[in-house]
Task: inverse folding
């Protein structure tokens, strides 16, 4: 599974074959069963996760006591609460497995060491973070401007693999609508 | 004004004094009067901006024809549409001066050259992007979960200098409320 990470690094930066094992040794492979929590709300967010197989979501419990999903991640994506990870503080979010999931996990100190030793990975993470930030700006735009139907349609067109793979009640939560409303929209778009 | 950028770099990474002029030569200083556009919606987004003095906002025109502000930036902040900047495509956003503003601007090719020549700046931009992304995740949480009053209170407590400095109709737009509603909230919180 670990080759996926090296392959992903190589999409953005050069990695000498002789350094691959040394790089991978900075990471711990971990397996989580469906619905297991990788990080719990109100605990220290010590790890950053690269998904080699499966699907994770990040959510918080809103003031009404309902789980609100704000992020999904599948293979080749990174996920953590970067604010809590970098400042080594408690997180406001929970990260949970949507499917049985394999990750490569790295803690803050090891990530810093890794970046010190292989500075080309600063570029890799700069580009990854930049894309994540750019996507979240666009998402804010859609949240402000799109109707529920438009948001779903846009999501479906841009991330068809997600829309099919993710349980509908979680997708509805991410799109900020009730499962009933999502089901109505889908019915309408099919007709 | 250019020293501000070097100082900001040095908060995150080491820069040799002898390289400062060479680094600054990658940037064009530009001055914009209040309400001037730095980047227009539906044009190529060629520049990334570091603000040395003033205040900018990023907005789009929503489906009702109303300007919706989604980002502000003041001194020592970077602003661009990273998606359009990196892919060298047209942007969905306008970047406009809220006050008379001085920036240091860099285009994509020069930024790549700069990063190639001074790779420690990859770390600087990695950290800047990571913080921007982390902040936008938290903002998404607030947009989902907070009432208008809570959003304003949170914004005021965390960014008091912004809340005082920014014209109230723009702040209302950013907080996704009408200026009248913002004015009511402020009256209520003062009483």
Result:
């Amino acid at each position: 599974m670990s080759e996926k990470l090296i392959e992903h690094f190589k999409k953005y930066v050069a990695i000498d074959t002789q350094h691959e094992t040394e790089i991978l040794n900075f990471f711990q492979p971990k397996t989580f069963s469906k619905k297991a929590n990788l990080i719990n709300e109100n605990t220290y967010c010590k790890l950053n996760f690269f998904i080699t197989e499966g699907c994770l979501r990040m959510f918080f419990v809103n003031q009404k006591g309902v789980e609100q999903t704000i992020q999904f991640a599948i293979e080749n994506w990174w996920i953590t609460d970067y604010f809590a990870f970098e400042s080594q503080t408690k997180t406001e979010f929970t990260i949970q497995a949507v499917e049985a999931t394999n990750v490569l996990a790295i803690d803050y100190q090891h990530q810093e060491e890794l970046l010190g030793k292989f500075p080309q990975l600063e570029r890799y993470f700069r580009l990854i973070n930049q894309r994540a930030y750019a996507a979240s700006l666009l998402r804010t735009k859609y949240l402000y401007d799109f109707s529920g139907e438009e948001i779903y349609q846009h999501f479906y067109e841009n991330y068809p693999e997600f829309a099919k793979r993710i349980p509908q009640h979680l997708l509805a939560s991410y799109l900020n609508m009730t499962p009933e409303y999502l089901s109505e929209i889908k019915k309408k778009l099919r007709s």
About this structure: The mean pLDDT of chain A is 92. Chain A has two domains: 2-128, 146-191. Residues 146-191 of chain A form one domain. Residues 120-145 of chain A form the longest helix (26 residues).
